[in-house]
Every structure is written in structure tokens, then in C-alpha cells.
Design a protein that fits this description.
Helices cover 24% and strands 13% of the residues. A hairpin with a 6-residue loop joins strand 10 and strand 11. The chain has a single domain, classed as Rossmann fold (3-Layer(aba) Sandwich), CATH 3.40.50. It starts with a strand and ends with a strand. The protein is of the alpha/beta class.
């Protein structure tokens, strides 16, 4: 794809969010004044306008909500994150700590969720929420240095025992892992909402991705400016929600000096997590089940979408927090029943007993790990109805926040195919990638 570089001071460089994009550098943006940069960076966050963020912020900014970001690390010193990042944990046991972002990806996710926009940075959808960073490794880092092979499941358990209400995982793997499944079940038993990227390899086999495909996790696919599912976005019965993921600005690399436009369900996951923070902030006495049920009930759907059905591409629809924040749409329902599984999420003795394992993870200890690529056969994923896909009788126009027919358009087909531009560089699929 052709990617546009957004200058925020310093030198040009390349790299983009997600696993499907290559940045193409140009010299046309070199030397932009900081004021122009700040305005341009915010102007690229098209989804904030589509979602009517300014209207939302009059009633909810995410205050009082904390989001655990399990990712490549989060730098708390970017202008947009000053005072917004709490003490976390480096589960990867590699060089540095959770504040050393080895790719820029985790810091981007944090800014998309809570960024203040200061210094030309990104404006988060839930700007008054807080972040707890948990650093895990991707396959490239695993190949470069010794890491903890259990970092993902241990991070999930540690986040489940933290003060965070929401857990954001913009990472994906081809492999089902029983330890990971037990970790998300534990997080659910602790009342957490776990959002994960559905993956960016729909055109390369569309294989289920984990942890998104665990039944307890809210799998998020990517939509574009028109509300159509992005072609790269994984689809299938495990998809629960969609959120904007295409042409979203994020840090180009670990030096955190510039933004590039990129595509990926990583972006979608962060925006979905921020949407949950906005709703939960309005209703601090609600459970995660109630917050999620309102998100599902109020999601944007096409006019031809049959009530009670679920799309393999958009799940229950595109996140639309303003529908609830401004108009009260969505029924919170039963506090202890998961809207994903229709089962109770009240902690059981067996789930509580696993807290000791989580405490070990929080202290940074680990046991000798088997091969990091070991995997087991995945069981069936979440069960959803054999629903017709939204817009199966043509695109149905609907506003991003549920108003007039001038906003997001929901359809079954992806938008324009993402094309790797210029040099034709190919990125190989890795065992664990950013989503």
C-alpha cells in the first residue's frame, strides 16, 4: 500500500502498524512546522469525526477507567501520554522494561485509547482513561534474544489481577494455546473485558487468530472509512465487533518521532477498547457484561441486517459509543451473564485457585518454557448464527453514530485491496504478530 508519512519532528523513517503495510517514504513532508504537523495528525484521525467524538466528550471521556495494554511496551514520556501511564510489567523478560517500546506499536495503541493530542500526538477516543502497560514479545524479538515463552498468558493473568477493567491485546497468533485460553477465562472470571485483534491475514488463508478466537475474548475486525470490512481483516464465526482500522495514524517505528498511516485490526481493537471505556466511565457500577451488551446492542448495522443475527465480517456491527453515551441506546441486561457465551461469568473456586499462578506472573517469575512455537489443536471457536452478512442486498447507508445515512456504510465486501507499493517488499507471516 502507499502510506503517507506524518511528520512530528525529527527525521523521516519508515514502518507501519499492522502486518500488511509497507510505508513509502517521500520527501514532501520534510521540514513541516510543528503547528502544521499537529493539525495534520489530528486531521488524519477521520474516525473521531465519524464517531462524533466531540459530542461524546461532553458526557464521557473515560475518566475512572484503566486499560491494560498488552503489547510491545508503552513509552509514558510522549507528549500525548504524559501522566496517563501507570506502573506495568515486562512479561517478556527481554532487554529493557515495559516502558521501552521496541517497535512503537504499543505506544500507538495507548495513544489511540487515551492520548491527549499534546505535541502533535494522537488524540485518544477515551482521553481521560489510564493505561497499564504489559510488554510481550513478537516473533522477531523472540528470534533476536531470549524471552519468556509464556509472556502472553502471564500478562493476561497479571492484567486480570490489576486495577484495569479492560484488557487490550493488539497481537495475534495462528496457534491455539491452552494456557492462553485458561488465562482469558480467568480474566473473564475477574470481571474484565478482553478485546483482541481478529488478524490481518484474510487474504492469506483467513486462519483463526488467537487470543481473538477464544470464546471469552471480544474479537474485533477492521472497517474502513465507508464502514465496509477491510479486505485484510480476518472474518468468520469468531468475530464479535468491528471498529475503524484502515488509514489510521500511528508511530512509524520505535524512535517515536513520526506517524505513518497504517491499516490493521490492532487499530480497531484499541478503538473498541476506548469505546468500552467511555461507556463504563458513565456507568461505573456496571459489570463488564453489561458494558459489552450495550456495545453489541448499539453497534451500527445496515438496514437489511436481520434482527438477532451476527455477521461473519462485522459481528454485531461497528462500535458506536455515541449511540449510548448521547442517546442511551442499548440494554445492559444481566450483570453476570456473558453476552458472548450466554454463560455465567461469576468466579468459580477453580478460577479463584488460579490466582496463585497470576501472582507469580505479577512478580515477574517464570518457569522453564517449552518451545515457543509449540501448539495444540484448536477446539471450535465461538458459536454464532449462520447470519447473512450485513448489506447482503446492497450497502446500507448509516451514520457512524446511528443518525442519518451520511456516515459509515456497512457492507460484506472489503474496501479497495491494500497494495504494497513501490519496492514490492513482502512481509512474511510470523508466529506472533501485531494484529
Amino acid at each position: 500500500m502507499t502510506a503517507r508519512m506524518i511528520e512530528s519532528g525529527g527525521r523521516l523513517r519508515r514502518a507501519l502498524l499492522g502486518t500488511t503495510a509497507i510505508a513509502v517514504l517521500t520527501t514532501s513532508l520534510v521540514g513541516l512546522a510543528p503547528t502544521a504537523v499537529a493539525a495534520d495528525a489530528r486531521s488524519q484521525q477521520w474516525y473521531l469525526d465519524a464517531m462524533k467524538a466531540e459530542e461524546i466528550w461532553k458526557k464521557s471521556t473515560g475518566k475512572g477507567i484503566t486499560v491494560a495494554v498488552i503489547d510491545s511496551g508503552v513509552d509514558p514520556d510522549t507528549p500525548s501520554l504524559k501522566g496517563k501511564v501507570l506502573k506495568g510489567w515486562d512479561a517478556s523478560e527481554s532487554k529493557g522494561d515495559e516502558t521501552d517500546d521496541y517497535s512503537g506499536h504499543g505506544t500507538t495503541m495507548a495513544e489511540l485509547i487515551v492520548g491527549s493530542g499534546e505535541g502533535g500526538g494522537l488524540r485518544g477516543l477515551a482521553p481521560d482513561a489510564k493505561i497499564i502497560p504489559y510488554r510481550v514479545s513478537d516473533t522477531e524479538r523472540q528470534n533476536e534474544q531470549a524471552v519468556n515463552a509464556f509472556d502472553m498468558e502471564e500478562s493476561i493473568r497479571a492484567a486480570a489481577d490489576s486495577d484495569a477493567q479492560i484488557i487490550n491485546i493488539s497481537f495475534a497468533s495462528d496457534y491455539y494455546n491452552e494456557g492462553g485460553r485458561e488465562a482469558v477465562k480467568y480474566a473473564q472470571s475477574k470481571g474484565k473485558l478482553v478485546f483482541a485483534g481478529a488478524g490481518n491475514n484474510a487474504t492469506e488463508g483467513n486462519k483463526k487468530q488467537y487470543p481473538a478466537s477464544y470464546p471469552e475474548v471480544i474479537a474485533v475486525s477492521a472497517s474502513d472509512r465507508d464502514g465496509s470490512v477491510a479486505e485484510y481483516s480476518q472474518h468468520g464465526e469468531t468475530i464479535d465487533l468491528a471498529a475503524p482500522g484502515t488509514s489510521i495514524p500511528g508511530y512509524c517505528d520505535k524512535s517515536l518521532t513520526k506517524y505513518c498511516l497504517g491499516d490493521g485490526t490492532s487499530n480497531s481493537t484499541a478503538i473498541a477498547s476506548a469505546s468500552a471505556a467511555l461507556i463504563w466511565s458513565m456507568h461505573p457500577d456496571w459489570t463488564g457484561n453489561q458494558v459489552l451488551r450495550v456495545m453489541l446492542d448499539s453497534a451500527a448495522r445496515g438496514k437489511d441486517w436481520e434482527p438477532g443475527t451476527v455477521s461473519d465480517y462485522l459481528g454485531y456491527g461497528i462500535v458506536r459509543p455515541n449511540a449510548h453515551v448521547s442517546r442511551g441506546e442499548g440494554n445492559p441486561g444481566e450483570p453476570n451473564i456473558s453476552p458472548l457465551t450466554n454463560k455465567s461469568t461469576v468466579a468459580t473456586p477453580s478460577a479463584s485457585a488460579s490466582a496463585s499462578a497470576s501472582a507469580s506472573a505479577s512478580s515477574g517469575t517464570s518457569t522453564t518454557a517449552p518451545s515457543a512455537t509449540a501448539s495444540t489443536q484448536a477446539p471450535d471457536g465461538k458459536q454464532t448464527s449462520d447470519a447473512p452478512v450485513a448489506g447482503s442486498n446492497g450497502s446500507a447507508a448509516e451514520d457512524a453514530d446511528g443518525g442519518s445515512s451520511t456516515g459509515l456504510v456497512i457492507g460484506i465486501a472489503a474496501a479497495v485491496v491494500v497494495v504494497v507499493a513501490a519496492a514490492g517488499i513482502v512481509i512474511a507471516r510470523r508466529r506472533r504478530t501485531v494484529a
